[in-house]
Automatic annotation (TrEMBL), chain A:
Species of origin: Paenibacillus protaetiae
Domain UPF0033 stretches: 5-73
Protein name: Sulfurtransferase TusA family protein
Similarity comment text for this entry: Belongs to the sulfur carrier protein TusA family.
Sample GO molecular function, one term: transferase activity
InterPro entries linked to this entry: TusA-like (IPR001455), TusA-like_sf (IPR036868)
UniProt keywords, alphabetically: Transferase
Recorded superkingdom: Bacteria
UniProtKB/TrEMBL annotation, chain B:
Source species of the chain: Paenibacillus protaetiae
Key words of the record: Cell inner membrane, Cell membrane, Membrane, Transmembrane, Transmembrane helix, Transport
Pfam families in the cross-refs: Sulf_transp
Membrane topology of the entry: Multi-pass membrane protein
A cellular-component GO term for this protein: plasma membrane
Subcellular location(s) per record: Cell inner membrane
Superkingdom of the source species: Bacteria
Name this polypeptide is given: YeeE/YedE family protein
Family listed: Belongs to the TsuA/YedE (TC 9.B.102) family.
Coiled-coil spans in chain: none
InterPro entries from the UniProt entry: Sulf_transp_TsuA/YedE
Regions crossing the membrane: 38-57, 69-97, 103-126, 146-166, 195-214, 245-264, 284-308, 314-335
Amino acid sequence: MQKKLAVVGMVCPFPLIEAKQEMETLQSGDELVIDFDCTQATEAIPRWAAEAGHSVTNFEQIDDASWTITVQKK
Amino acid sequence: MILTGLLCGALLGFVMQRGRFCLTGGFRDMYLTKDNRMFYALLIAISIQSVGVYALIQMDLIKFSAGAFPWVSTIIGSFVFGIGIILAGGCATGTWYRAGEGLIGSWIALFGYMAMAAMMKTGALVPVNNSLKDYTAPHNSIADTFGISVWPFIALLVIITLWVVIRTLRKPKVAIPSMKAKRKGLNHLLFEKRWHPFFTAVLVGLVALLAWPLSEATGRNSGLGITTPSANILQYLVTGDDDKFINWGVFLVLGIFLGSFIAAKGSREFRFRAPDAKTAVSSFIGGILMGFGASWAGGCSIGNGLVMTAMMTWQGWVSLVFMILGTWTASYFVFVRPRTKAKRQASAATAAATA
């Protein structure tokens, strides 16, 4: 299952807080697609994913100051 | 000569934007995620500056006098400042460089910060600003209190810093996923590659060191500073008195904005981003608390947290401690409590549903 989390417009650290919260509701193997535009999250979200043991299946810049990252729950 | 401030600020803004050097986030995460990396990075920047500046002082190239230590206003001001930077979503410098990234919320915070600092320094709130300045300890310099040279203290700081840095670097690393590189060479290194916070900290320390001789050459005897210069911009704009208010520091903070804009534009990270109403209000209140706190404390996270610490003063280190406590207090109310409350409500709801 894939779920989308739109946190565009949210400032740090809220995108990460929202992502963590959303992740708790998912099953192992589910994917969370996070669209965000807060620059610091380009560092904070992949770091959290790696440290929590989730895998990142997609991470790219879509436009000026907007990114998307897909995190698969471990 | 005054324009060297613009260069120094631009370097700082560039480095901070690309290195994601955020002290607010760093102090906050010490509490929220038990992550001390940014704090250790700050120690690196302080150490480099400390060794460098005291070497310059030893060579008689620059002068520094710590003066007395207004401890009550430093403690209260720093704590209030700490609360403010959480609400504003960035410290004074962080707000300047995020403004350069196009975040309108940071512009709002910046305005609150400038206005409040100007009111405290030359406006209606001067009596408030001065009200606690009588509570002073005679020595601000830690070395003077003990009546010995400053070097043993610097050596101690360097040893502690090396210890925590080496310990952190030795930890087993997790591979952090990154975006596919689209650029090559210098373009990749400057505008795309992720910088290690410790590497960024070394650069910040060097810029902070560079600030001393450049600023001194214009007759301004101190290093990096954000609050007074930010207030100076507004004071100049409303009084038109350039002799009094236009100085090296003003160009420094404008440089931070410019450097960050160049960095963000070059790496496709610039875009005007408008906050929602709640964030806008929080940014404004944060900015006001920042201006109020930093004026009372005699410095922000840069002036006290990075520069006065490097100068081995009580003001710097005491301020740093209370600033961090302020960010933790605000983090509890902004990030921790709403979540535990929501959780409790959710579990109460399920309990009611299954009952």
